[in-house]
């Protein structure tokens, strides 16, 4: 399959490399067709790897990954072009982390909105699926790095697109629990990401994330629909 990876940072490189190793054809996109990081990545990954602008990668890919700086994702996707992404699944791994006031970062969009929703509104013909953004990129491509089962959020308004993304991710993490919800269900996920990255101690990080997931599991076990599985608000 042809996959467009939008982003030349650590996440784009890690996901791109994994996909090439899975025998997929991957084009990495950036603001410039001569981006040095992308060129080095192509050199290291052989004939299945290529690079171009965001628009080139968006046109190339049957499925796209948004691995751009979250605060700039809308700008990057505008460069990718709505026409090049039309009808395609965009797996959005970005978090809108604003580091301008130092550490820890704050979310540039939160509470009543989220980056995934902003992207879906800006590009209504794209099937946005927010996923993997709560997980470190090394773990995204190698879940066995952390023992035990994992929880993966899959948020989007298109059920078929979410099922397709789950199909892609599941073989890599067969014992993971995939939590599916509509696109606004991803609103709280970046907070988990901040909590995890702000805490140095693994034993501190786990209960924080696990507590919210326990609620999810308990609700499901009790047969009550979780609020994040409910229909999106009327204005969406
Ligand atoms: N690090 C992790 O393990 C992890 C885990 C989960 C989620 N995430 C999220 O994954 C995303 C990627 O993270 P990263 O550390 O790999 O990369 P990053 O440094 O956050 O982003 C790099 C990409 O953003 C693009 N970009 C930056 N400013 C831009 C602007 N003004 N306009 C258009 N594009 C711009 C860059 O374009 P050029 O290529 O042209 O420079 C580059 O491709 C982030 O949203 C991050 O929050 C990271």
Write structural notes for this entry.
With 236 residues, this protein is an alpha/beta fold. Helices cover 40% and strands 18% of the residues. It has helices at 10-21, 36-45, 54-60, 73-80, 82-85, 115-122, 137-141, 159-169, 189-198, 202-221; strands spanning 2-6, 25-30, 49-53, 63-66, 89-92, 97-98, 106-107, 127-131, 151-155, 177-181. The strands form 2 sheets. It has an 8-stranded mixed sheet, sandwiched between helices. It has a two-stranded antiparallel sheet with strand order 6-7. The protein is globular and about 50 Å long. The two termini are 32 Å apart. Mean pLDDT is 86; it is low at 199-212 and 228-236. Residues 7-12, 30-32, 35, 67-70, 72, 75-76, 93-95, 97, 133, 136-137, 193 line the site of NADP nicotinamide-adenine-dinucleotide phosphate. The site of NADP nicotinamide-adenine-dinucleotide phosphate has 25 residues, from helix 1 and helix 4.
Name the features.
single chain; 236 residues; alpha/beta; eight-stranded mixed beta sheet; two-stranded antiparallel ribbon; 10 helices; 10 strands; binds NADP nicotinamide-adenine-dinucleotide phosphate
General shape: globular
What is the rounded Rg? Answer: 17 Å
What is the beta-strand fraction?
A: 15-25%
Judged by helices, strands and strand pairing, the structural class is: alpha/beta
Record field, number of beta strands: 10
Q: What is the string of helix and strand elements? A: EHEHEHEHHEEEHEHEHEHH
* First and last CA, distance: 32 Å
Number of helices: 10
Strand order of the largest sheet: 3-2-1-4-5-8-9-10
Q: Assign a percent range to the helix content.
A: 40-55%
Q: Provide the list of bound ligands, each named once.
A: NADP nicotinamide-adenine-dinucleotide phosphate
Provide mean pLDDT, rounded: 86
Unreliable runs: 199-212, 228-236
Main pleated sheet: 8 strands, mixed
